[in-house]
Amino acid sequence: MNKARLLLSLAFVAGAVSLALAHGFVLSRGIGGSGGIPVNTGIPMISGMPQVGQTLTASNGTWSNTPTSYTYQWIDSSTGTISGATASTYVPVTGNIGNTLTVSVVAVNGFGSSLPSTSAATGTVVAAGGILSAYNDVSTNWQKAGLITIGGIPTRTQCGSTLTPSGGDDFAAIQAAINACPAGQFVLLGTGTFNITMSESLLIAKGITLRGSGTCNNGSSPYCPTLLTVSNGELMTYNSGSSCGTDTSHIVPCVLNSVIQMIPTGTFEQAWSGCAYVSDATGCSTAVDADASQGQTTIQVHSLTNFSVGTWVRIDELSGATNQTDPAGGGNVFAATDLTASSGSPATGKVAYGGAGVEDGAGYGALHDRATSEIHLVSAVGAGPCPGANCTLTFDSPLTVAYRTGHSAQVYWPTRQNGTPVPFISQAGVENMSISRATNAPIYMSFCAYCWISHVEAYDWVKGIIVSSSVRSTIVSSYVHDCADCENNGVEYPLAFDGGTTESLMTDNIIYLTGKGMVERASGGGNVISYNFQDSTFYMSNGGIGNYWLDLGINGSHYVGSHHTLFEGNYGSNCEDDDTHGNEVYHTFFRNWCAGLRRPFNDPSFSTATSVTFNASDAPVNDASGNGIGFATGFSYPYSGGTGPKRAVGSMRWAYWMAYVGNVLGESGVTTAGNGWSYQAFNENNKVIWMLGWSGCGGCSDTNLSGVHGTYYLRHGNYDYLNNSIVDFQPGLTHTLPNSFYLSSVPAFFTGTSCTYSWPWVTPTAGSPIQANSCSGSGLPARARFEAGTPFVQP
After folding, report:
1. What is the sign, positive or negative, of the torsion defined by CA atoms of 742, 745, 748, 750?
2. Measured at the alpha carbon of residue 446, what is the angle toward residues 441 and 451, in degrees to the nearest 5?
3. Can you tell me the distance from the alpha carbon of 551 to that of 565, in angstroms, rounded to the nearest whole number?
4. Quick one: 519 exposed, middle or buried, by C-beta within 10 A (0-12, 13-18, 19+)?
5. Which of 181, 359, 498, 564 is the most exposed place for a label (fewest CB within 10 A)?
6. Which of 627, 619, 617, 568 is nearest to 597 (CA)?
């Protein structure tokens, strides 16, 4: 090389170095290859509430070349780099209000520093103080719901060969593949129909994934290329009671089994400290030795035996129920003495049973009279001695409600029913398949942590998907529809969070043609039910009620004890909690669209050719036509009494300390005074926006739940289509609503293939209370998929 060319080359390199340094890049040997500096493979994420005084936490993202440390820089969308904000956490200040925040992460290893990787932006930072009372606000727990703390559903590699359908019974082959698969990998089912019988149930007892092949984009059910069906299971005869067999000419008695069980033991062998579910468990586990309040992370216990860091534990208490005067009238209610306390603080169970005494909840994972409960991860164990002040357990998230020594509060460890300890399963999943003809739930999950059900279609089932005694687990982007025995017998519920289930997430699902929208029975605190599309509840023509009855839509109820669930961003025929089997407390309904009625549909118990009541002319159901067109058992069609009760929000008696904030209520042009709608009523009525405190007790109503504003509930910033405005702003509270009570930025499923989606999509304080997508379809992704006829492919 001659001297001129050498000087020119040196000048070029010097210029490149200067340019790189001017832009903040760090030069190092190795650019992303093996042995070089770290290279980003997944951007950082921010968790937490973008609110003044609340802590935001940055994940590192994912990187190649094994970083040994990280540096952070928080950035304000308006003012730029925030001076001194160089930790993995950041607490927004007043200067951030109205702006969004990002974090830039640099990974470091022995070869040098990476290029920066910047997170997605948070939502707009809002002022401190917020809207929710402290006894409602368990946002620290909501922000841990589902898989957020482990970075979402993990990437996995396949174990073994892809299975293919045999044409016969595939149970043994699938179970053998599951048993042989190492934790952290997946079993892949090929395309086609895999058969098991109703006497068989696939068991996933470790952290593996059972996955179907291809993309779930078939034109009708089964929507997924992989179908797992019970060959002699439920038949869609819509007869009263279940009908099973290979076909309608070979009906046999049903054998009750879940198609898939995600549990660490054999069928229903799991227990808490070996305690019985149906008798008093007091004294069979470890007592709480000092009152524990909402928000505490450390509790004092009587013994540390059987507890260690990393153990998932249950904490609960007796209800303390005695006969109390029923505030709804009609005599007494068997309830806690503080049921009608004049303040929601302190946050306690405040249980009221639906009957004359304790109602057994063993089938829902509730220990006898211990429905108020939650599940936590032990992060530290005290030094002892026990009993004593240092005999303590520390959890990695706070208690959502108080647990009191006067109510014999206890802590349990997971066991088999014989008392043998058994750890929770961690990170088990079912993905990308259709499941049909289940006789006792398509999927039953219990004693599972960080487990998931993703992109699963479940149809023609008895009992829907059940998550019981689990924690930080997820049902996401799934389609649950067409219950096979849709009558009032407890098997018509599509999705359930039961038995102390805590900090779990039900999001972006479609729920259609089921008896209720969902249920929560004795569930723990910190659960989130968000961005689901729910519609067309019905009871079949041969089931003793009929489709005229408009049942629960978006709700967290149907057995006593559930508390502190966040319902956010859903569409439902109504939003409420019932008093059947008891009450629920401290739920929050935020930015939901609660329609007040069902969209027109055809009752499948009339329109399905195999139904014993097939009669297509009686199938149409239309709540919006006059007083409603529908069928009632024992009456001619259409039922002269119409359909209903039609209500947008209808939480029943004893549903205390609920928060209803920023929802949109009713349907534009439908729920109007001209169509007979009114704003509120406090007993069972029809065509009403607010129907709080009602009950099926013959016109009685809970006077504690009457009025636009009251002591026992919060109504604030709810837009309704009767007034075409917001008429319930609470004095002294801000009119500026946060985007979310649990998310810091837009969820990933708000991205379409050809349409764009605004988030949040429910905007009661904006010019348009409901946002459409850019293709003039629904702004709720799950509804947009349903209405496009592609329940797993986003328009």
Report:
1. positive
2. 95
3. 20
4. buried
5. 359
6. 627
Lowest mean pLDDT among 327-341, 398-412, 473-487, 505-519: 327-341
Q: Which of 550, 549, 553, 497 is nearest to 527 (CA)?
A: 497
Helix (H, G, I), strand (E, B) or coil at 3: helix
Write a three-state SS string for 428-469.
CEEEEEEEECCCCCCEEEECEECCEEEEEEEEEECCCEEEEC
Question: Alpha-carbon distance 332 to 75, whole Å?
Answer: 58
Q: Is the dihedral of CA 712, 651, 146, 470 positive or negative?
A: positive
Residue 301: how many CA atoms within 13 Å on its side-chain side?
A: 29
Q: Report how far apart, in Å, the C-alpha atoms of 63 and of each of 109, 184, 700 are.
A: 11, 19, 62
What phi and psi, each to the nearest 5 degrees, are found at residue 405? Answer: -65, -35
Alpha carbon distance 137, 726 (integer Å): 23
Q: How far is 524 from 790, CA to CA, in rounded Å?
A: 34
SS3 readout for 594-629 = ECCCCCCEECHHHHCCCCCCCCHHHCEEECCCCCCE
Contact by Cβ (8 Å): 387, 302 = yes
What stretches of 165-206 show up as alpha helix (H) in DSSP?
171-180
Token code pair at residue 485 = 């025995």
At position 393, the amino acid (one-letter code) is L
- What are the φ and ψ backbone dihedral angles of 290, each rounded to 5 degrees? -145, 140
pLDDT of residue 5: 38
Q: How far apart are CA 86 and CA 116, in angstroms?
A: 13
In degrees, rounded to 5, the angle at the alpha carbon of residue 751 between the alpha carbons of residues 748 and 756 is 145
Q: How far is CA 545 from the centre of its chain?
A: 29
pLDDT tens for 147-193 read 999 999 999 999 999 999 999 999 999 999 999 999 999 999 999 99
**Residue with token string 């009523």:** 681
481 close to 510: Cβ distance less than 8 angstroms: yes
Return the amino acid letter for 235: L
What pLDDT is recorded for position 3? Answer: 40
**Strand-strand pairing, 554-555 and 519-521:** unpaired
Distant-in-sequence, close-in-space partners of 155: CB < 8 Å, separation ≥ 6: none
Beta-ladder partners of 40? 63
**pLDDT tier at 742 (50, 70, 90 boundaries)?**
very high
How many residues are present in the chain?
Answer: 795
User: Does residue 151 contact residue 474 with C-beta atoms inside 8 Å?
Assistant: no
Nearest Cα to 786, choosing from 463, 616, 484, 532? 532
Q: Is 42 exposed, middle or buried (0-12, 13-18, 19+ CB in 10 A)?
A: middle
Q: Which residues of 200-238 are buried (b: 16+ CB within 10 A; e: fewer)?
A: bbbbbbbbbbbbbbeebebeebbbbbbbbbbbbbbbbbb
Rounded Cα distance, 567 and 565, in Å: 6
Cβ-proximal residues to 625 (8 Å cutoff; 6+ apart), any chain: 600
- Tokens (6 digits) for 750: 């708000």
Quick: pLDDT tens for 607-653. Answer: 999 999 999 999 999 999 999 999 999 999 999 999 999 999 999 99
Q: What is the CA radius of gyration of the chain?
A: 27
Strand ranges (DSSP E) for 92-225? 101-109, 112-113, 117-118, 157-158, 185-189, 192-196, 202-204, 209-212
List the structure tokens of 14.
């010097």
